[in-house]
Design goal:
Blueprint lengths: L2 H9 L12 E6 L2 E6 L4 H37 L4
Antiparallel strand pairs: 1-2
Organism: Streptomyces rubrolavendulae
Protein name: Small hydrophobic protein
InterPro entries: DUF6126
């Protein structure tokens, strides 16, 4: 058995799978074949905008949750026996 041939085959980069039906095309990348969406890029911008809006919602929600927790701490501390 030739171990060097097995080693060479294992080290070879494998192309990524691409959906046969859909807006995907194969384009050469740095490490072989990659998948990129076909079109003018507006779909990517929509996903970025959704991601930003989701992040803003999470940050605002988390900030209000933290502020409510601090408010409760002050309310409990005000009624503590001294």
């Amino acid at each position: 058995m030739d171990c060097t041939a097995l080693h060479r085959d294992a080290a070879a980069p494998r192309p990524r799978r691409v959906a046969a039906d859909g807006p995907w095309v194969r384009r050469a990348g740095r490490s072989g074949m990659t998948t990129r969406p076909e079109g003018d890029g507006r779909d990517g911008e929509k996903w970025k905008e959704r991601g930003v809006m989701l992040r803003v919602f999470v940050y605002v929600f988390a900030t209000h949750l933290f502020a409510g927790f601090v408010w409760i701490l002050f309310a409990v501390g005000r009624h503590a026996q001294k």
